[in-house]
Amino acid sequence: MTHRLVLTPGEPAGIGPDLAVRIAQQAQDVELVAIADPALLADRARAIGVDLVLEPVDYDTPPVAHRPGHLKIDALPMARPAVAGQLDPANADYVLACLDQAVARCTAGHAAGMVTGPVHKAVINQAGHVFSGHTGYLAARCNAPTPVMMLATDTGDLRVVLATVHIPLSAVPGALDGPHLAYVLDTVHTQLARRFGITRPRILVAGLNPHAGENGYLGHEDDEIIAPAIAAANQRGIDAVGPLPADTLFTPHQLARADAIVAMYHDQGLPVIKHAAFSRTVNISLGLPIVRTSVDHGTALSLAATADVDTGSMTAAIRVAGDMARHGA
Length: 329
Known about the structure:
A divalent metal cation binds at residues 166, 211, 266. Catalyzes the NAD(P)-dependent oxidation of 4-(phosphooxy)-L-threonine (HTP) into 2-amino-3-oxo-4-(phosphooxy)butyric acid which spontaneously decarboxylates to form 3-amino-2-oxopropyl phosphate (AHAP). Pathway: Cofactor biosynthesis; pyridoxine 5'-phosphate biosynthesis; pyridoxine 5'-phosphate from D-erythrose 4-phosphate: step 4/5. It comes from Salinisphaera japonica YTM-1. The protein has 329 residues and is an alpha/beta fold. The protein folds into 2 domains: 1-147 and 288-329, Isopropylmalate Dehydrogenase, CATH 3.40.718; 148-284, Isopropylmalate Dehydrogenase. It is 37% helix and 18% strand. It has helices at residues 16-23, 38-47, 92-107, 121-126, 134-141, 172-175, 178-196, 221-235, 246-249, 252-255, 266-277, 312-327, and strands at residues 4-8, 31-36, 53-56, 70-75, 113-116, 148-153, 159-162, 202-206, 239-244, 260-263, 281-286, 292-295. It has a 12-stranded mixed β-sheet with strand order 3-4-2-1-5-12-11-6-7-10-8-9, sandwiched between helices. Strand 11 and strand 12 form a beta hairpin.
């Protein structure tokens, strides 16, 4: 069965439109629908010398596998024409409207999932919107709790979940408590089974402090907060192990017995997976009522409309979204 995915290119001055245009040249086993301004994609295709046929989507027809050189389009207009590499707050409403449209298409059943290109948080905030990123915005649009961020390789050989995300390192200990860790572990357990078909996932949990606190000599959070949360999760039937010292957690021996790693903070987990597979890494939102994946990089304004754009992460994001859709709700 072929599934339909909607794609939002993100910031129009960045590489998101380039990614959409270049991805359209590749064979896909899903139907891709870009929610974007057709003029933007046509202009970017001309700029990089790529032939592209844009076709209006008909959501009332069954999805068909993507044809290279073609791209279905769900048209939304920009406020002003985009110039590659030059941010324009006037188009911030357009970026958010594309996300709103994608959520609406997924919740209405017109699409099996959404794949997002990179947005530029600062320019959206400059336009007067309080915007901390895709994750919180999409959660609000779906009336869902804030989802859990997971980065994974497209082959699933490494999955890293963040217990805390974009907060200062000094704020991490205060953000870790039993209820929050329970929510993270429950979400990871449930979503790996539901979206990835892993019937009994094993989750390895990193400690916060060096050597996971070393029995309290290097910090008390591991013994007083993380370990009790893991024990409580075990009582709920979750196969979680830890807290484990982070400096040996990502060794092949440990990873061989893990379906996912829960890291306590951003730079504890993400440097490892980005070093291992940067161009194959996918950002996945666990806990939304819809499938959502994204690239693991930013807008790269200086690369827009050039020949230097790597489509690896976008290709992986589409592949993973399609796999998640096939596992069903």
